Amino acid sequence: MLATYGIFGGTFDPIHIGHLRSALEVKSALALDSLYLLPCHIPPHRRAPGGTPLQRLAMINNAIKGSDLMVDSRELDRNTQSY
Question: Are 23 and 10 in contact (CB under 8 A)?
Fold first, then answer.
C-alpha cells in the first residue's frame, strides 16, 4: 500500500496551539501516514514575518518535538513568495 502524505502550509509566525491542533486533526481525519508543516518564506497575503526563517524553523521544530508531525523547510531556502 502507498504511503499518504499531507502538507500544512503557513507562516507560523509564531507557531501556536491552533496550528498544531489543526494539523493533528487533519492528519487524523484523513488517516495520513505523515503530515509536514511547510513554513513559507515570503507570504504574499500579509506583511513580512517578524521572525527570521531560521527563528521560525527553530520554533516549529521545538513545537513539534514529541509529536508525529514533521517539518519541510524547502520554502525557507527560496527567496521568493510562497503560495
Answer: no
> pTM value?
0.91
User: What secondary structure does DSSP assign to 9-41, as a single string?
Assistant: EE--TT--HHHHHHHHHHHHHTT-SEEEEEE-S
Q: From the CB of residue 26, how many other CB atoms can be counted at a distance below 10 Å? A: 13
- CA torsion 15-19-24-29 (nearest 10°) is -160
Which value, in Å, is the radius of gyration of the alpha carbons in the chain? 13
Neighbours of 21 (CB within 10 A): 10
Q: In sequence order, what are the residues at sequence separation of 6 or more whose Cβ sits closer than 8 angstroms to the Cβ of residue 76?
A: 39, 41, 53, 54, 56, 57
Element (H, E) at 1: none
Query: What confidence tens digit (pLDDT) does each residue in 27-70 have?
Result: 999 999 999 999 999 999 889 899 999 999 999 999 999 999 99
